[in-house]
Amino acid sequence: MADIKEFRLPDVGEGLTEADIVKWRVKPGDPVTVNQIIVEIETAKAVVELPSPYAGTVARLLVPEGETADVGTPIIAVDVGGSGDASDAPAPRDVSEIEDLVPSPPAEGAVEPGIIGSPAPKAERQAVLVGYGVKLGRTTRRARKTTPGDAAGSRGGTGAVVAQTPAAAPGLAAGSTAPASANGAAGKALAKPPVRKMARDLGIDLSGLSGTGRDGSITRDDVERAAAVATVGPVPSLGPPLSGPALAATAREERLPIRGVRKHTAAAMVASAFTAPHVTEFLQIDITETMTAVGRLRALPDFDGVRISPLLLVARALIIAAGRHPLINASWDDTAQEIVVRHYVNLGIAAATERGLIVPNVKDAQALSLPALATALAQLAETARAGKATPADLAGGTITITNVGVFGVDTGTPILTPGEAAILAFGQVKDAPWVVDGQLVVRKVCTLALSFDHRIVDGQLGSAVLRDVGAMLADPIRMLAWS
After folding, report:
1. What does the buried/exposed string (b/e) look like for 328-364 if buried means 16 or more CB atoms within 10 Å of the residue's CB?
2. Are 143 and 112 in contact (CB under 8 A)?
3. Tell me, what DSSP letter sits at residue 213?
C-alpha cells in the first residue's frame, strides 16, 4: 500500500516567504534517497538546491517549473513504501485534484478560484534539511492572473489536460487547413504555465501556434518565433497566410517578470536610496605602482593557480582603511537608535549575474593573508557566476566594493548595500597623462568613488577613508606600513 509523504517548501533562510521552482532534478517514477538533490529553487537572494528528506519513489511533482510557491506549500509527493507511519501521511489526491494543482487559464466566463490547495495534513515534526523549517497549517498559492485572450486555452469540464497533436511546422499556423481539433478536442493549446504567461505578456495567441515540443506542446522558442512577427489583433489559426506589412513588422516591446534576485535587489535599492542619505566622493589616482605589484604577485609561487587582478589590492586597501577608520564599517540601528561599529570586515563584492545583481561577501576578510584573500575572491566570483551563491554567502556583509571598471567605465555613484555605511566603486584602469616630478608622462590611472551613509559618516571621515585607499594604491608599500 502506498505511503505518500509530501515535502513542503522550507524557509531556506532569513524569513523568505516564497520561491520560484527553477528546475526539477527528478520526475514521477524516479527513485530518490535522503539528501539527494531533487529541485533548484530561486529565492529573493539566490538559487538554492533542495535535498529530499525522504527515501522512496517520486509520486507527483505538485508545483511545475516556472511557478512561484509560498513557503509551506507541498511541492513534491514521495511514496516512501511503508517506511513511515501511514496514519500520519496525507491521503493521496485523485487525478482531478492533482490536475487542479497545475494552474491553467479559466474558460471564458468562468471564475478562477482565488485559492488553490487543500487543508494541511495532520501536524507533525517534518524532517527539514535546509533553513529553519516550515510553518505547518493551511497554505495557499496565489491565483494566476488571466486575460480574456486565454479563453482558447481553457480547461475542459472533466479537469483533464487535452492533448495536442504535433503540427507539421513550428511557429504561426500560416496557411494551415487543419481543423481546430489539431489543438485538442476542446480547442486547448498544450503549453506549460510559464509558456502561457510568456505568450500573454507578448500578446501571442497560443491557439494560432503549432508546437515543436513533446507531444506537440508549445515551447518558449515557438512563442519567441511568433513574437518576431507582430500582428494587429489575434493571430488566426485558420485562413490565408500573413503577408505584406504584417510579416515585415517586428515586436516593439518585451515584458520580463520581476521575480527572484532581481525583485529583491530592486526593493533593497529603493529602500537604501530613500532611507540612508547618500554622499559620493571621487578621487582620481595614479595606480601604476599597483599594476606593477600585481604583475610581481602573479610570478610568486604562493599565488599559483589563482587569478590575480588589481581588485585584490583594492580589497586589501579598503580592509586596512576600515581598520584605521572603524565608523566606515558600521551600520545604523534605527530601532535601538544605535550605531553598530563592527571590528571585523565581511567584504562584499558586487557581482552582475544572469539573474541580477548579488553581493556575496568574504567572511572575516581582515584575518586573511593576501594569498588566502586572493583565493576567497576567486571562489566568490566563480560561485556567483555559476548562480550557486547561498543565502549565507549573501548575508552579513559590512562594506562593499563594486568593480565598475570591468564594464569599461571610469566610475559611478553606487547605492549602499542595505545595512552598510559605505561602498567603494573601482573604475577602469587606463593610460592617461599625469604629472610626475614636474614632467608630463603617461601613467596607469583610475577613478575611485566612495558612497557613504551621511548619518554615520561625515565628509571629513569619508574623505579620509577615500584618501587612505588612494594612497595605498598609489604606493602599495603603505599597505605594509599601515596593516
Report:
1. bbbbbeeeeeeeeebeebbbbbbbebebbbbbbbbbe
2. yes
3. S
Tens digits of residue pLDDT in 441-472: 999 999 999 999 999 999 999 999 999 999 99
C-alpha 353, offset from chain centre: 8
Sequence letter at residue 356: G
Is the domain covering 4-142 a CATH 2.40.50.140 domain? Answer: no
Whole-angstrom CA distances from 457 to 214, 326, 374 are 59, 10, 29
Domain ranges of the chain: 4-142, 154-248, 260-482
CATH 3.30.559.10 describes domain 260-482: yes
pTM > 0.70: yes or no: no
Tell me the catalytic residues.
Answer: 454
**Residue 108: Cβ within 10 Å count:** 11
Q: How confident is the model at residue 15 (pLDDT cuts 50, 70, 90)?
A: low
Q: How far is residue 63 from each of residues 9, 22, 99, 117, 135, measured CA to CA in Å? A: 10, 11, 11, 11, 18
| CA neighbor of 119 nearest in space, from 145, 97, 95 | 97
H or E element in which residue 171 lies:
strand 171-172
Residues in CB range of 103: below 8 A, 6 or more apart:
67, 116, 141, 144, 193
